Amino acid sequence: MITWQFTKFEKPTEADELFDRLLKTFKELLLHSSGNVSEALSWLTQLDKQYNLSGDSYGIADFINELIDKGYIKTQDAQGSASFVPSSKLEISLRKHALEDIFDQLKKSKRGGHSTKYSGKGDEHTSDLKPYEFGDPLSKISMSESLKNAQINHGLNKFNLTQEDLVVRETKYQSQTSTVLMIDISHSMILYGEDRITPAKKVAMALSEMITTQYKKDTLDIIVFGNDAWRIDIKDLPYLTVGPYHTNTVAGLELAMDILRKKRNPNKQIMMITDGKPTCIKRGKKYYKNSFGLDRKILSRTLALAVKCKKLKIPITTFMIAKDPYLVKFVDDFTKSNGGKAFYSSLSGLGEFIFKDYKQGKS
Q1: Is 126 helix (H, G, I), strand (E, B) or coil?
Q2: What is the architecture, at CATH level 2, of domain 176-360?
Q3: Which of 48, 191, 210, 242 is 20 to 30 A (C-alpha) from 170?
C-alpha cells in the first residue's frame, strides 16, 4: 500500500538562497580547477569582491563554514599543512549538477531506457492500453482508465469494478548497452586559449550520472588517452587534467575493445570525445610520434582498428570539438571505416549531442 507523509513547508531563508547560489558557482569553479578546492574558493572570493555575490549579511567565510558543516568539503593534512578537499557528497553533487545543467530535459521523465520498436514486458510506458490478462503485473494497471470503464459499464449509482473493466498500459522492451567513453587528454585540449577539457569531463560526469540513475541495466566505463590510455573511476572525473601528451587514439581504442570483450551485453558502443587527429602510436616500448599533418603509419593503424570494431559490431561515435577541414576529412574516413557516427560540435553543444545520441542511437 502506497502512503504519503506531509510535512510543514518552510520557506527558504535569505541565507539558504545565498548558499545555494554560491554553491552553484563554486561547483563550476571546482570543475575548472580540476577539484582544487582552495583555488576554486580563491576565484570565488575574487568574484565576490567584484560582483558582491554573497550580499551584505553573508560572506565567503560563512559559505566555507556551511560547506564544512554540510559535509561538502573536509580538511586533509598534506605535508604538515591542512587543506580542503572535496567529500564524496560533493562529488555526487557535481555529477547531479552536470546532469541538470546539460541534460535538463531528463527531469521531464521519471525513467529512461533504450527503446526498441517492440512492445511487451518492459520499463517505458507507451500511450497504448490493452485489456488486463491473467499474469499482467498489477503495477501496470491504469487505475484512472479502469475506474472510468467501471463507471461506464456499471453506472454511477452502484460502483462495481470487475476484471473486464481493467486495462493495463503497454510498455516497450528496454535494451541493455555497454558503453566505453573515451576522453582525449592530450595537450591540444587546452591549447589556443580554449578550455576543452572542462566541458568534456562535465559531459562525462553528466553521462555517468544519467546511466547510473536512469539506465541502471547499462554499464559505463571511462578511459582517458594521451600517449597511453588508462581507465579512470567516475569519482575521479572532477580531478581530470590535461597532460603534456600526444594523441594515441589507437591505445584508447585497444583498451576500449578489451573492456567491451568482457561485457555480456549484446549492445556495445564506444563514444570518443576528441579535438584533433591521432599523432602517436606505440611500437614495443617506444613511441612513434608525429604532430605534423596526418601521418600515414599512425592513420593506417587507427583506421584498421575502426574496421576491427565494425567486425565486432562495436559502433564508434566520435564527438569532434574542432572543424578544421583536414580534421573533418580524417573523422569522415574513420567513421566510414567503422560504420559509426560523427558529430562536429561546439563546446556548448557537446552535451546535447551526446545526450541525443545515447537516447536515440539504439531505438
Answers
A1: strand
A2: 3-Layer(aba) Sandwich (3.40)
A3: 210
How much is the pLDDT for 108?
A: 43
229 in helix, strand or coil? strand
Tell me what pLDDT residue 319 has.
Answer: 85
Q: Which of 173, 177, 291 is nearest to 226 (CA)?
A: 291
User: Mean pLDDT across the chain, nearest whole number?
Assistant: 83
Rounded Cα–Cα distance for residues 231 and 229 (Å)? 7
- Domain ranges across the chain: 14-86, 126-173, 176-360
CA pair distance 297, 337, nearest whole angstrom: 16
- Strand boundaries in the chain, DSSP class E: 73-78, 81-86, 114-120, 124-131, 167-175, 177-184, 219-225, 229-232, 267-274, 280-283, 286-289, 316-320, 341-344
Q: Does pTM surpass 0.70?
A: yes
- Residues 18-51: pLDDT tens digits? 899 999 999 999 989 999 999 999 999 999 999 9
Q: 107: how many CB neighbours lie within 10 A of its CB?
A: 9
Q: Using pLDDT thresholds of 50, 70 and 90, give the confidence band for residue 80.
A: low
Grid cell at residue 117: 520498436
What mean pLDDT do residues 326-338 have? 89
| 223, pLDDT greater than 90 | yes
Report the distance separating Cα 317 and Cα 310, nearest Å: 12
How far apart, in whole angstroms, are the C-alpha atoms of residue 24 and residue 16? 12
pLDDT for res 306: 97
Each as own residue / partner, the long-range contacts of residues 237-241 (CB below 8 Å, 24 or more positions apart, any chain) are 237/95, 237/201, 237/204, 237/205, 237/208, 238/30, 238/31, 238/34, 238/35, 238/86, 238/91, 238/94, 238/201, 238/205, 239/34, 239/35, 240/34, 240/183, 240/185, 240/197, 240/201, 241/34, 241/185, 241/197
C-beta neighbour count of 59 within 10 angstroms? 14
CA distance 13 to 19: 10
